[in-house]
Structure to design on (639 residues):
């Protein structure tokens, strides 16, 4: 321990003997670490938002369907169990955020236009926490009950259909016998969504009303459960597996939308690559600084060896010097990243490029996401790689012959 | 037992195309408590011999024995340990660690030895007083004169009471008064603590303090005078 104190003191003093060089290197490390963490937070935010929007379109982290529903999401593939019976099980299991829905393709017709849409028959009470629609922000009103006879459509769809609140539209789909099932609905609300395509493609009606229209009795298309964190849905998945039986399929969100799931995996890998790439650029400066520090201290290192310091201690001193430099740079860079994320954590408006963002299924507000795990990853990667980068100059210093080093001009 | 025994030491340096014999079959035995001056013109081999005795340089052939232990074939780590525990060094120049204060430079060896902090501090302050540098404890080498730096180096070399002190031109940067003071200190330590001194020099004043004067020329010992007897 006493040796570590000696080495740490020497390393610290040596670090500041050339203030300018150390400060330049510190600035480079700080900037690099800031870039690693800040840009990662932006990218994370972007991907998270994309996934969140994607999940809110699904919506639900864990879903139960008929095994063929994903291939043919039609009325022919409803869950072959009673909605009432399964719902009772979900209530008993203690799920907080869950819902059951009828979700079928349909055609909506106004007096001017027709459009293909996805009809969602929902229970507005249980759906409140799951859907991407903010009930309170709906123009007009949202559905009040499962047997509400109105329909809520997106503003963009309303514009396309040239309809408005109070007007009637006709929804048309198929019943289980492949006969036309249609019904007139009054438009009671218009919603806005982060993603414009949601406004065009989804519409909401009461679940009971839709069941009656489609003549499907007490059946639904899906049961959905929302967990606390989309990254960790295994607990909910296992619980749902225990609840359901028979001819149904239970899937997690990333299985239902492999593109989103892969995106999350790619993002984790990309963050690591990004951090390593920035570090590689930094490492040239770091190694150069250490090599110079060793080179201008050859005689001093020779003196310490002559006085009885072991080569391993010289190695340790140079490595501690490098780690001190990195630690200060990491602390400053991490703090700076945190400080720059704080003012924009409520979102950055990127609506100027909203069409492009929408194409990728992303909203026009970007929320940076500063994850502790990313900060830790950046710090650990920089420390570990910095340690490795400092080994070469440190090793070189420790191999000096004392007398040759002392007499070096 | 002898403090230092060198048997048939040879060391050749290559300078360009020319081989220079720095040590040419040198044998010497120095008793414990000896006060020996190695005197030679530049290139005579005195520094090479001093470095071989201190384990800083390996001879091409021959044996170096310090306090009964052969050291010329020891690995680097063990040589470092030997230097740390048994030998004090004073070099001609570049003696101090620039980032440490005078007191910290003196404490450095003791700190590496593992001497407790309080004892270290007390001994450092005492030895600074002994070499006439009381009050300069917190100065860094850059803020001291050459003579003051050399005295700090001497203080560091003797503070942990090594059995053997090796000094290479210790008075080269000192005025005559300071040089005399330093040599008095060496003799005092030699007499009171039985510390063995081997000093390489061509300063006649330094030679006059030696109990034994060994003259070298072209890597050979050409004269070995017991000055105490004379």
């Amino acid at each position: 321990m006493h040796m570590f104190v000696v080495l740490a003191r020497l390393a610290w003093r040596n670090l500041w003997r050339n203030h300018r060089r150390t400060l330049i290197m510190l600035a480079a490390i700080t900037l690099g670490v800031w870039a690693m963490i800040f840009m990662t937070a932006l990218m994370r935010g972007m991907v998270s938002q994309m996934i969140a929007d994607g999940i809110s379109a699904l919506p639900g982290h864990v879903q139960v369907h008929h095994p063929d529903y994903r291939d043919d999401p039609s009325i022919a593939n409803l869950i072959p169990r009673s909605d009432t019976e399964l719902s009772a099980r979900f209530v008993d299991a203690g799920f907080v955020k869950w819902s059951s829905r009828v979700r079928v393709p349909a055609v909506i017709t106004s007096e001017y236009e027709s459009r293909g849409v996805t009809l969602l028959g929902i229970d507005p009470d249980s759906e409140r926490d799951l859907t991407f629609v903010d009930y309170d922000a709906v123009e007009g009103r949202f559905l009040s009950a499962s047997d509400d006879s109105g329909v809520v459509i997106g503003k963009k769809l309303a514009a396309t259909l040239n309809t408005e609140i109070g007007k009637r539209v006709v929804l048309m789909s198929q019943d289980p016998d492949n006969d036309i099932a249609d019904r007139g609905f009054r438009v009671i609300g218009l919603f806005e969504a982060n993603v414009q395509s949601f406004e065009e493609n989804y519409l909401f009606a009461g679940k009971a009303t839709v069941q009656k229209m489609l003549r499907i009795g007490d059946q639904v298309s899906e049961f959905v459960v929302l967990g606390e964190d989309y990254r960790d849905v295994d607990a909910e998945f296992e619980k749902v597996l225990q609840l359901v039986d028979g001819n149904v399929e239970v899937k997690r969100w990333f299985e239902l939308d492999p593109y989103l799931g892969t995106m999350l995996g790619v993002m984790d890998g990309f963050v690591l690559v990004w951090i390593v790439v920035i570090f590689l650029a930094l490492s040239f400066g770091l190694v150069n600084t250490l090599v110079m520090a060793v080179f201008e201290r050859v005689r001093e290192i020779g003196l310490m060896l002559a006085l009885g310091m072991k080569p391993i201690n010289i190695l340790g001193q140079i490595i501690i010097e490098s780690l001190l430099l990195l630690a200060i740079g990491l602390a400053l860079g991490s703090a700076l990243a945190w400080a720059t994320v704080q003012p924009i954590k409520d979102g950055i408006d990127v609506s100027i490029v909203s069409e492009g963002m929408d194409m990728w299924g992303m909203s026009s507000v970007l929320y940076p996401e500063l994850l502790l795990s990313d900060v830790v990853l950046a710090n650990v990667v920089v420390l570990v790689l910095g340690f490795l980068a400092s080994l070469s100059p440190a090793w070189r210093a420790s191999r000096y012959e004392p007398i040759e080093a002392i007499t070096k001009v | 037992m002898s403090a230092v025994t060198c048997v048939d030491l040879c060391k050749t340096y290559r300078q360009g195309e020319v081989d220079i014999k720095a040590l040419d079959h040198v044998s010497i035995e120095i008793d414990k408590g000896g006060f020996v001056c190695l005197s030679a013109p530049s290139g005579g081999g005195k520094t090479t011999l001093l470095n071989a005795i201190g384990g800083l340089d390996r001879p091409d052939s021959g044996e170096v024995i310090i306090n009964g232990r052969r050291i010329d074939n020891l690995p680097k780590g063990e040589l470092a340990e030997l230097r740390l525990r048994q030998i004090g060094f004073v070099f001609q120049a570049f003696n101090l660690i620039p980032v440490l204060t005078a007191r910290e430079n003196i404490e450095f060896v003791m700190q590496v030895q593992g001497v407790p902090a309080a004892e270290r501090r007390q001994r450092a302050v005492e030895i600074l007083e002994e070499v006439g540098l009381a009050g300069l404890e917190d100065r860094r080498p850059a803020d001291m004169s050459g003579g003051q730096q050399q005295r700090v180096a001497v203080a560091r070399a003797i503070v942990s009471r090594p059995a053997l002190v090796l000094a290479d031109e210790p008075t080269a940067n000192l005025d005559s008064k300071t040089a005399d003071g330093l040599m008095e200190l060496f003799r005092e330590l030699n007499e009171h603590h039985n510390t063995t001194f081997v000093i390489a020099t061509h300063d006649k004043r330094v030679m006059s303090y030696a109990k034994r004067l060994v003259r070298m020329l072209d890597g050979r010992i050409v004269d070995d005078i017991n000055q105490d007897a004379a």
In short: The two ends of chain B are 24 Å apart (CA to CA). Residues 98 and 141 of chain B are 6 Å apart (CA to CA). Chain B has seven helices and ten strands. The longest helix of chain B spans residues 176-193.
